[in-house]
Every structure is written in structure tokens, then in C-alpha cells.
Amino acid sequence: MFKPTNGGYMDLTFHVQTFGCQMNKHDSERVTGMLEGLGALAVDTIEEADVVVFMTCCVREAADVRLMGQVSSMKNIPLRPGSPLGKRMVAIGGCIGQRDGEKLFDELPHVDVVFGTNNLASLPSLLEKAITDHVQSAETLEESLAFPTDLPTTREHSWAAWLPITIGCNNFCTYCIVPYVRGREKSRPIEDVVAEASRYVADGVKEITLLGQNVNSYGRDLYGKPRFADVLQAVADTGVERLRFATSHPKDLTDEVISKFATVENLMPALHLPAQSGSNAILKAMHRVYTVEHYLELIAKLRDACPGIALSTDIIVGFPGETEEDFMDTYRLIEQVGYSQVFTFIYSKREGTPAATYEDNTPREVIQDRFDRLRTVVEQGAYDFNQAQAGRVVSVLFEGTSKKEPGIVTGRSPENTTVHAPLPDGLSVQDVSGSVFDVKIEQARTWYLRGEFCSLG
Ligand code: 5AD
Ligand code: SF4
């Protein structure tokens, strides 16, 4: 039987499958970094993997159901030829791991390891125990003992880095499970954030995205109470070419942060500002602690500071008690703001949250109809936003070739819009990936822009 040598994983292959938000994607990069650091080899498919790690999400029910289905169906996938293990190891991490702990072993007996959102660092030892002693083990600490930032990370793209500045959330929006599975908000000291950002810049990273459930409340738990604007400025000062952040809670977005969009050149003109609803009654029931009027004031200030800013948002349709009038308020908010992108979600009841106990008698078809009507206004907004980019020259950070069209390279504008352009003669995909080039926008579609590289001379 295989035994990891000296705690190493030399002959093992692994595959990490990620569900959910950017924080999970980042956690997956840490898991990959950790397992690679131990000598294991990352592979692209479950079939090739000796160890499969699922980084899970439980924000909506659909993700739960998908995970259960995927993990169950894995039983039928044979072990790869030459695997040093007698059985494929399965580990479940992330929010479902945290929420369900060892209960998962009852439902999914072929799972070997369960680890919570605060237990990334324990994964290697839990796996080792499962491999050598054949025991299932779970670890789900309620609060993180330390910021898991000392863990190695293998980034998806060498030129872009996510940098968590807070973990957890103190807001308790009534529909949301996140505070229960990610714990109370913890901020990372500015010096640590800046040190990591500086390392990335020295390493050739072009774009840093500061991450947190609500980055705007950064620092309230730290000595001296540094503010988000301070850490934003400090990271901008490292000289990184592009700086972004997510997510912002409207109740905590300060004038000082808004003014950074006017003054900080490397802060990209794009902001994700979840509104959730355009009805004050629903916002109150959601415990969002702002009004639509306040939200619109923020939008006006943002446009004042940065006229071309791309605004995106999250909207929940069908929150318990939502009336047609409430819904139309949301519809009008979307029309009025003119978002570049809107992520719409049908409300999903999450056990343990306050809203799970609210009376909810809107028929499913009515909610689906509202959701469909919202799509039209969302698409119109995205189309109008993109149309306004036609004819402009935008600087694009390229990521690689388009999946559908070889010969076309794809990247992101400062506004975070996808841009496609034919690869110019004399340049390879490797030449452009991870680099910024000017592109003249010639065509605007709802979800992307198309253009030509400007003269490279
Ligand atoms: N149902 C539907 N959408 C939800 N979100 C969070 N919780 C729920 C839920 N129970 C949405 C919010 C949040 C986004 C990440 O997910 O819009 O901003
Ligand atoms: Fe959930 Fe609200 Fe916290 Fe966002 S701010 S993670 S929606 S509780």
C-alpha cells in the first residue's frame, strides 16, 4: 500500500474542482499550491487523479444539489492505471464542508476527508491519515486561528492574483448563509497585504484583485483601525499595473473610497456594488441597512468621480414577500443605473438563515416570470454599455486564445469587459498572454467587444 514518503506526495496526481465565488477559487489556488509543494502533480480531470478535492459552495441550493450528484457519480469512475492508491481519495472542502462536517460521510460514504473553510492548512495531514490509516476524518474549526496566507499558492494565471484582505462576514443579510460558514470578519494587517502585493509585483503580476465578502469594512478589528481606503492606496502604491477589489457592501462604501476612482490611476474603472433589490421594503427585510435612495446617491458620486465607470451588481428575485410592485422597483433600478453586468439569482431558501422562517407564498411560476423579465432589461443595459465603447481605444490585458475561435485572442478592458481581437502577424499567443495592448473597438455585442490591435510600432 502506498505511503506518502516523508510527508511527501511524489507519485500522486490530484484534481481540484471549484464551485462558487472568487474566494473559493482563491482557496483552490492555495490547495493546489500546497499539494504541489508536497510533490503531487495537478491534473485536469477526475479520471487522471488519485486525489480529488471539491471546493464547495452552499450559497444557493442548486450548488448543493450539483455537488452531491457529482460526488456520488464519481464512484463509477475507475482508478487511473498505475495509481499508487487502492482507492481514489475524495476530499470535500469549502462552505459545504464547513456546514455539514462529518455528517457528509453518512450521505457520501466514499468520501475520505472533509475540511472546513478555516482548515485549508490541515488538508495534507487529513489526506495522509486517510491514505495510510484508511480512516475518514473531518476538521471544521469555527473560527480561523490565523489568516491562511502563509500557505503557498499556485495562481490560475501567472499575471493575475487574488489577494484576500478580509475573511468572513459580520453582516448577516437575512437570506445569506455565508456568515455561518465563513465565520466572523477578520482583517489582515496592512503590512502583510502590502508585502504579498509587492511580492506579486516583483513576480510580474499585472493585476491584483483585493478580496473580501465586504472589503469596505476592512480594518475594524485591527489595531489603529486602518480603513479600506488606506489598504487600497497602499496596494496601489506598490505600482501594480491594474488594481481591482470585490465585494463592496453599499452601506460601508465611503466617499474616501469613491474618491480613489478619481485619483488612483491604477485603480480600474469598474465596481461591483450588489444592490440585491430596488425596493426599500425588501431591502429592510433583507437587513441590507441602506435605502434605494442612498444606493442611487452612491452611484451618482461614483459617476462624478469616474464618469466612465462600469458598474455591476447582484439581484435576488423572489425574496419572501416580494410583490409585483417591489419587483418593478428592482426592474426600474436596473434600468435607471445602466449596469454593465447584472448577476441575477432566484431566491434560494437556506436553512439556518432568518429568511428561511419568513412566509414565502409567491408561486414558482411568478418568480420565474419576474426572473425572465429581468433578463431583458439586464441584457439591454449590457448592450448599451458596450455600444458606448465602440470606436474607443482600450487597453486590454490578454488572457489567451478564444475557446471558440483559434487565432482570436481574448482579454479584459479596464472596465472588465471581455474583448476579442485577431492575433496580429508576428505575435504568438504566448507573446500577448499576460500583457496589455491597445485595441480599437470595432464591434459591440451584449457580452463582449471585438476590435483590432492598434499599430504595434
Ligand atoms: N438565494 C439567492 N441568492 C443568494 N445570494 C446570497 N444568498 C442567496 C440566497 N439564499 C446571492 C446574493 C449575493 C450573491 C453572491 O449571491 O445576491 O450577492
Ligand atoms: Fe452574505 Fe450579506 Fe455577508 Fe454578502 S454581506 S456575504 S450577502 S451576509
Protein model, in words:
- The protein has 4 domains: 13-139, 3-Layer(aba) Sandwich (Rossmann fold), CATH 3.40.50.12160; 157-268, 2-Layer Sandwich (Transcription Regulator spoIIAA); 269-388, Transcription Regulator spoIIAA (2-Layer Sandwich), CATH 3.30.750.200; 393-453, OB fold (Dihydrolipoamide Acetyltransferase, E2P) (Beta Barrel).
- Helices cover 33% and strands 21% of the residues.
- Helix 7 (190-202) runs parallel beside helix 8 and helix 12 (324-337) packs parallel to helix 13 (364-387).
- Strand 5, helix 5 (123-133) and strand 6 form a beta-alpha-beta unit.
- The protein starts with 12 loop residues before the first strand and ends with a strand.
- The protein is globular.
- The protein has 457 residues and is an alpha/beta fold.
- The model has no long low-confidence stretch (mean pLDDT 93).
- The site of iron/sulfur cluster has 10 residues, from helix 6.
- 5'-deoxyadenosine (5AD) binds at residues 59-60, 175-176, 274, 276, 314, 316, 345, 347-348, 350.
